[in-house]
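INTERNAL AUDIT FORM
Audit reference: QA-55
Scope: verify that the stored structure record matches its stored sequence.
Auditor: D.O.
Record contents follow.
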Amino acid sequence: MAYQSLYRRYRPQRFAEVRGQEHLVRALRNAVVEGRVGHAYLFSGPRGTGKTSTARILAKVLNCENPVEGEPDGTCASCLAIEQGTSFDVFELDAASNNGVEAIRSLIERAQLGSPGRTKVYILDEVHMLSTAASNALLKTLEEPPDHVVFVLATTDPQKVLPTIKSRTQHFEVHLLSADELRGLAEFIVGDAGLDVSPEAIDFVVRQGAGSARDMESALDQVVAAGGVPHDESALDELVQALCERDTGRALTAVDDALASGVSPRMLGENLIGRLRDIFLASVKVDLTRLSDLDRARIAGQAQLLGTARATRALEVIGEAFVGIQDAPDPRVTLEVALIRLTSPQADTSVAAIVERLDALERGLGPIGAPPPPAPHTGSHPHVDAAPDVDPDAVDASTRPAAAAASAPPAPPARAGGRPADEARKQLAAKRAASGTAPATRAPVAPKAASTPPPPDPAPTPVAASAPTEPPPRAPAPAPTSAPRTAAAPAPDAPTARPTPAAPPAAAAAPTTGGLPSRDELTLAWGDAVLAALPGRAKSRFAGGRFVAVDGQAAHFGLPNKVHATRCEEVRPEVEAALAAHFGRPVPLVIVIDDDAPPPPGGRAPRPAPDAHDDEPGSIDLAELVDADDSALSSIDRIAEVFPGVEVVEEP
C-alpha cells in the first residue's frame, strides 16, 4: 500500500477525536441525539482546523446503522464506505473548481433522487468561490431541500458568502488550536506511529502549525522525511535582534545567511512579518496561547526591547515594501532597503522616522521620570520664586511705577500704525472737497512730550523685562481748534508720562538644571513643535523672530525692531512656559533687537492693543484731524506726475 500522509491517516473519524472545537462538536452531537438536525450548516474558519472532517463525521452518524450517543460506530457498511470515499450518500463538491451555474444545476437535479442510506449529505467546500449566479441558483433548494437531504457548506472566507445563503444555514465558526492542543496531537501521532522525533522538532512543528492541525501534521511529515528540523530559524532570530538593537550590519548579515541557506526573500519577509506581529501582540499584553512556553518567553523579551511603537512601524515599513515585491527586479534589495530604514532612522525621511529621531533626542536631553519644571510666575513678582535671594520689598519697589502708570489716564489717540486716523482724514477731506468748503487754517502747536527712544546699538540690545512703554507716535498730533495745548500747561485730562522702571537682571530669571539647549536645538524645536503650540497671540507676535545666541544664563531671541520687541515682551512668559514644557527644564528668554531678523508677518510690527480707557477699540478723536492740502491738479495731471513721459491723447 502506498504511503499515506499523516494528516490523512490521522483525520478524525468520530466527534470525540476532533480537537479544539468543543462548541461545534457539542452542538452537532446534541442535535443528532435529540433528532433536531438542521437542513443546512455553514462551517467557517482557518484552514486545517476540521471543517470538512466534521462534515464527514456528521454524514457518517446520520447514516450509521448503530449510532452510539450521537457518535458513529465506525464498523457498519455505511461508515466504512464513507471513510473509503465510495458512499452514495455523501457528495463532496469543490466550489473552487465547480463554481458555475451548470454544476449547481446538476447538484440540484441529483438531490431529488434517493440514496441507499437514510440521509443524503452534500458537502460544498470553499463555498465563497461560487459565482453570484451559482449562489442564486442554489438559494431555493438550500432553503427548502428534500426531507432526506442535508447541506454542509465550508469556507475560509465567510465575509464573501452571500448574506442570503448565510441566513438559510446554521453558522458555526471553527477556531485555531492552541499550542498545548497542537503539542498533544503531535505527541500522540509520534507515539502512535512510532516516529523518532526530538523535542526540539516537536517545538518546530507546533510553531509551524500556528494553530492549524493539518499544517502541523504536514510539518511533522517533513521533519520525519528530513531526519530533523529542515532549516534553522537562527537567521530570523538574528534579524529580529538586529532590529531591536538598530544594528544595520547585523541585519544585512542575517539576510545574507538566510538567503544562503535557501530561503527566498519573500519567505523571509513573511516569516519576519509573522514574528513582528507576535512581538506587537506581546507588547500590548495579548495572551499568545497558540505559542509554546519557550516561544512566548523569547517573544516577550523581544517585545520589551522593541516596544509597541517600533514594532508597529516595522510592520508598516516591511508590509509596504512587500506590496510590490513581485514586480521588483531584485526582491532582496526591497527587503534590505526596508531593514535599513528600520535600523537607521537618519537614513529615512518619512514623518515616522523624524518623529522617532525627535523622541530619541528629547529622551536624551532630559531624564525620563524627572520632576516637571516649575511653571512661570504670572503674578506681580515674576522673579521672586525663581531667585530666592531677591528681596520681595525691592521687587515691590521696582514695580510700583509700572502699577502707577497702569492706573494713569489713557494716552492721546496717536497710534503707531495710524491707519484709522489716515483713513478718517481722507474721508473728511473728500467730504469738504465735494461740498466746496475751504479748509480752515489752524495754527500748529508743539507736539506732546514723549520719550524718544535711543538709537539702536549695532549689536543686539536686550529689552528690559518690565512694563512696556508707550510707542512713539509717527507724527505730531495737532491740537483742537478751541484752545492749543502746550507742554507747560497740560489739559486736565492729559495723561502723565509713564515712567520706565529699572529692569531686573536677566541672570535672576530662573535656575537652570542640566544646562540650556544649544541654539541649533532651540531652532529645531522652535520650528517643529514650540511655535505651533503657542497661543494665538504669542504665536503671531513671535513668528517674526529667531534665536540668535545662547549664553550661560538665557537664550537670546532676536526681533526686527523695538516696537515689535516691546509687544513680544508682554507674552514672553507664555513662550518660556512652552519652551520649559518641551525641553523638560526652564529656558529663560531675553528679547533683543536683531537687524538681520526676518520682518514680522504682514511687513510691520504688531499693532499695540487699545488702552483700557478708550471708549472703543480703534476710536478716533475727530478734533485732531486736519484737512488735506488743496490741490489744483486735475486727475489727468496727477497721473502725468506719477508716470513721467506719458502722452495724453484726446478723443475726437
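Auditor finding: record pair retrieved intact. Residues 365-421, 437-513, 601-619 have pLDDT under 50 and may be disordered.
Action required: none
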